[in-house]
Amino acid sequence: MKRTTTLLLLLTLFHQTIVRSQSTATYTVTFNSIWNASDHSSVPIGAHWSKLVGATHKTPNTFLELGQLATTGIKNVAEFGSNAVFNNEVNTKISNGEANQYINGPSLGMGPGNIIIQNLQVDQKFPLLTLVSMVAPSPDWIVALNGYNLLDAMGNWKTSVVLDAFVYDAGTDSGSNYNSGNVVTSPFEPISKINSFPINGNKMGTFTITLQSVLSVPSDNALETVHIYPNPTEGIVHVQNMDINELKEIQVYNLLGKMVTSRKKGSSEYDFTDLNPGIYFLKITSKDNNHKVQRLIIQ
Questions:
Q1: Residues 8 and 64 in one domain
Q2: pTM for the complete prediction?
Q3: N or C: which end of the chain has fewer CB within 10 A?
């Protein structure tokens, strides 16, 4: 009842200019590693997984593609478990409207076990999910979920799926075993599934994706091309594809529909570090009183 009341308050708050609703789903994603000596030849000393990172986006194969060369970001994840360049690649896609968030999941300090990403907010405009983690130690091997669509054929959010997780060679290092020395592949080769020793083509685990909730978030066609990023954010928000002179005000509301802060037009960057971590609604109002409302997560 309390959640229903909250949604009614929000819909009332924005009813003057809302022309349609955009839904946002909350998911829990679990990577369950089954790394074992029987299926994968051995579990070397120090076996672990790098941070499970990724993005939600619009178009398939945005960040990696089987049969194509790895980007520098994917190469660095696969070889070193380093995510900085991949993070930059995601932010570039966010800035051009192709993606809407960088996913910074935890790591796993052992071979078998679980990595869990909780409260993953997925916007209906960006329903494709990509995730990647390094098999460590390894030359350049990863498990990856590439552009999985969380919407079904009818446009509804999928409720629960379990997907096999296989191991892929990024094609940048020619080592043939977990502890092989650095052997740069020249020229680089396309990303491929490892069907030979030591993985033997066997799955390395599963991705379980479970729907937790769905929320209708108001949206407005007039400001369709305006992008707000990064999201989640530590407090600094950028507004792109909008003439600052056309911006009237930015307001932030909590989940009870109460405005907690506002900013007048100033620049394309806005500081909300004074707000406590949590889920908010950010409302942009233009001079001609068009609106865009988007869920904002402050970490």
A1: no
A2: 0.71
A3: N
